[in-house]
Task: structure prediction
Amino acid sequence: MTTDVNRRVLPGFQLSLGYSLFYVSLMVLVPIAAGVAKASTLDFATFWGAVASDRALAAYRLTVGASLAAAALDLALGLLVAWVLVRYTFPLRGLIDALVDLPFALPTAVAGLVYSALYVENGWLGRFLVPLGIEGSYSRLGIVLVLTFIGFPFVVRTLQPVLEGLEADVEEAAACLGASRWQTVTRVLWPAVYPATITAFALAFARALGEYGSVVFVSGNMPFRTEIAPVLIVARLEEFAYGEATAIAVVLLLISLTTLVLINLLERWSKRAYV
Amino acid sequence: MSEPTISRALHDPPLVRVTLILAALAIMGVLIVIPLVSVFYQAFANGVDAYVQSLVGNADTLHAIRLTLVVAPIAVVANLVFGVAAAWAIARFRFPGRTLLTALIDLPFAVSPVVVGLFLVLIFGLQGYLGPWLREHDMAVIFALPGLVLATAFVTFPVVARELIPVLEAVGAEEEVAAVSLGARGWQVLWRVTLPNVKWGILYGVILCNARAMGEFGAVAVVSGRITGETDTMPLRVEKLFQEYDLPGAFAVASVLASLAVVTLVVKTALEWKTRRDLAATAREATATGHP
Result:
């Protein structure tokens, strides 16, 4: 209804839509089309050799594995922080709330640089952890740690509005019906929150999959051990092996796009289930 | 059921409450506060003089700062124009493919910056689709300024649109419809009604986009060729200094970028605070005049 009225009354529909489509095509569709076109010119043996080499397989495993681990860690830490920020009042709450967004705004190279310095043997955190055998720099753990930093705000900012939106009366009802606090939390609150936790996990995972800037600093980039897929692409590029680099890039792109589609489906599903 | 039992079931026990708050503070401390403080501590570890010296005393670092100050604004302006156009189309109109357009705008968030950089090389590089034509006309995109701008613009292009769409939807079209019915032309509506209404949303979008643009690493690293003193932007300079074991230098450049992030957060918090206050004021006014 409003649609038709708006389009008849408000100016600029064709201009704004036309320009948006033009810009999106130029900036996004053309580069992606070029990548796919280049990949399709490779013969199958070259493509498969690049995509399924032992080094590439190790890189995908590490990229996906570290991203899953980081997203899981983000979910646990982020759920706790979101709960505390929404439910309790305490000194510095406003400051802590604002700082959650730091990873959004902090350049990834800065995050990588500082994380690599913190967890080395004489770093601020490494001096306590390295004697315990926990190597947070130039290791797989380092990759997970910095990816956790990068994905953290996605989880908190996804869960916060959901926790804020929980109606107090369902908790009151549960309490009046004799539920203990633990029962209220696990049987009443958790079912209302958990669709959002899946979305939050998926967002953190998607963000971690493509991350490059911070990981190059902390990982040490050892082939087979700490080399993630984007680093392998850059390594192939530096050897001027454009075809192989493109083949790996297309695989990474497909993983990202699949995740994006899954996130959209999840959001639709959780809206249908709970609104 | 007695009062205290219900209260116990409604509220977390004090011990749980304190433990969770302390845990949250510890998480935020280790994950975010210590790294942030450490950037500035390391940058100033050898004193203010050494800090200033490592920024302005190094010609390559100075060049990187200047280059970033050229690349980021171009990308931000391009994305601002797109952001306003896309937000207007998406927030004000319903059309077939609207969901698809929204999804396409989110795409750069999901695509690895390295992949973006590589695809740009495939188009504009010497052996790329447009490579021979560019060389014939003596133009360079890859390993040069245009490539840096393109890569930065791709990676940051959703930011302004994403900030503006919800703001524009929240404001509603009533004032614009009124302006049109009073005879305002298209551009007048945009400049006199729409943009003033969403100016804070635009401001935050631009600042966040700028912070992202200045900090972009992966895509820029691939298209720049990392030529010291020529195509190194600030984040690339950080990496190069890091690889040369010049940690004070790396942290000095990093601290400038971190300050930018802190400013972004301050502006965001201030705007949220202002929005809340405005909403409260409007609500008070409504009760005072008796109009809900």
Residues 247-289 of chain B form the longest helix (43 residues). Chain B has a mean pLDDT of 89. The domain at 47-289 of chain B is CATH 1.10.3720.10 (MetI-like fold).
